[in-house]
Amino acid sequence: MEIVFIILIAVLYAGGMFMLLRRSMVKLLVGITLLGNGANLLIFLLGGITKGKPPVIDSAAKLFTDIYADPIPQALILTAIVISFGIQSFAIVLLKRVYVLVNSDDLDDLNTPEEEDI
Predict the structure, then answer these.
(1) pTM of the full predicted structure?
(2) Distance CA 11, CA 2 (A)
(3) pLDDT in tens, the chain (118 residues)
């Protein structure tokens, strides 16, 4: 099961880096999203995959006799998903505003001055 996650993380990182190198602002945002999802899966994988055991331990138990899922990576991933959703929604609004002002999706058009401005 871990090998499937490793391959998926590699594909997400490679796709994210490829999209970051494009000139389009929308592709840049998609690349950042793919990198964030790859990082979330990496945290999930490093936390350990335990099948069938919830992270709830009986209060009467004095010793841990069985393997349980670690809830900390899961909580970190949920927090990262919420934060990335807020950042993505802000970036979409920001990209829309830049597109209205510049009338282009190309990142190179942001750096070149207009001929009448010179």
Answers:
(1) 0.79
(2) 14
(3) 889 999 999 999 999 999 999 989 999 999 999 999 999 999 989 887 777 666 677 778 777 777 777 788 889 999 999 999 999 999 999 999 989 988 888 888 887 666 655 5
